[in-house]
Structures are given as structure tokens and as C-alpha cells.
Amino acid sequence: MRTKSKKKLEIIKAAEKRFIRHGLRKTTLDEVARDMRIGKSTLYHYFDSKEDLYYQTLDNQFSEYIVEVKSIFSEEQIQHAEILKKYIALRKSFPQSYKLLNHLILMSINDKATQVENELLSKYHKAEIKIIEDFMKMLFTQAGNEELKKKTARFSFLLYATTVLNGFLSKIGVELPDEHDINLLLV
Fold first, then answer.
1. What is the three-class DSSP state of 53?
2. With contact defined as beta carbons under 8 Å apart, do 62 and 120 qualify?
3. How many whole angstroms separate alpha carbon 71 and alpha carbon 46?
4. Rounded CA Rg of the chain
5. How far from chain centre, in Å, is Cα 110?
6. What distance, in Å, lies between the first and last C-alpha atoms of the chain?
7. Whole-model pTM?
8. What is the mean pLDDT of each run of 10 residues along the chain (187 residues)?
9. SS3 content of the chain, % helix, strand, coil (to 5)
């Protein structure tokens, strides 16, 4: 027998596909229930409304993203440049890997996100920035000489800029730095 939380996650994953494909307005709970092969009333056992399901779907996708960010910055066995490359690769893949979140970021940039959506976005943006800040503090602590501190400062700026500007940059068509750019910055 499935646990309640596992069933809830399965519903969230099914709804995520619908929300990505059709958006909040055009997705119905009937469709989500049909995709899951459950009754609509079962959805109400887990969620108060379609909006509740949508916000919990966003929250789940944000949580998955933050877990991925944490895993990158907690890798102790690789060079700092490799961590940066992995993080930038994650940010580059963000529009495809986290389509619902990417859509939300673009809506927020265009002032079309709801208050609840903006609050979720802010919550997770702060969590991502905190992970990066902690990593940068560790880098500065380890940096002994002035040249290393300069490299660390460039590295830190690139991390921060990548995080803060990613949604905006992708909207206006500016590419994130590639491996060559990273190597130039860290030389």
C-alpha cells in the first residue's frame, strides 16, 4: 500500500506535467484525476483546490532545484572551478529542467505573478543565495594571498551574477558564461 505522502507526490508530478503543458488556467482537476486514474474527490483529500495543487507543485519543483544546488556546492572532492561549471550548467539547463519555475520567473519579471507566486520565488531565491553566500564565505576563508583573493572575488561575482540575473538574461537572450569564459575569469 502506498503512503499518503507518496500518493500526494505522484499527484503533484502528474499535475506538474499538466501545468507545464497547459498552464494554471487551462488545467483542470478532472484532467489531473483522469491522468492519475483516480476520482476527483481523491484530489480534494490531498489538496484544497486547483490553486493549492499548483502552489504545492511549484513548491515541490523549487525544493528539488534547491536540493540540486546544495549537492553541487557540497561536493568537497572537486575544484572550485568545477563547482562553478556544474552550477552554471545547472542554470543553463534550468529553462528545460524546471519549466514551471522558469515560466514563473518570466511572469515575475513581467509583473504578472501573483503574490503567492512571488513569495515562493522569493523564499527559494533567498535559499539559493544563502547556499552561494556560505560557499563564498568558505572560499574567502581559504584564500590566503592577494592573488587568490582576487580570483575568489571574480569567482564569487560570477556565481552571484549567474544566480540573480539568470531569469532576466535568458529573457533578453543573453547567454550565460560557458566553460571558456569561466577559465578566463579564473586565470
1. helix
2. yes
3. 30
4. 19
5. 18
6. 56
7. 0.79
8. 82 97 96 96 96 97 96 86 85 91 88 92 87 79 66 63 55 53 53
9. 80, 0, 20
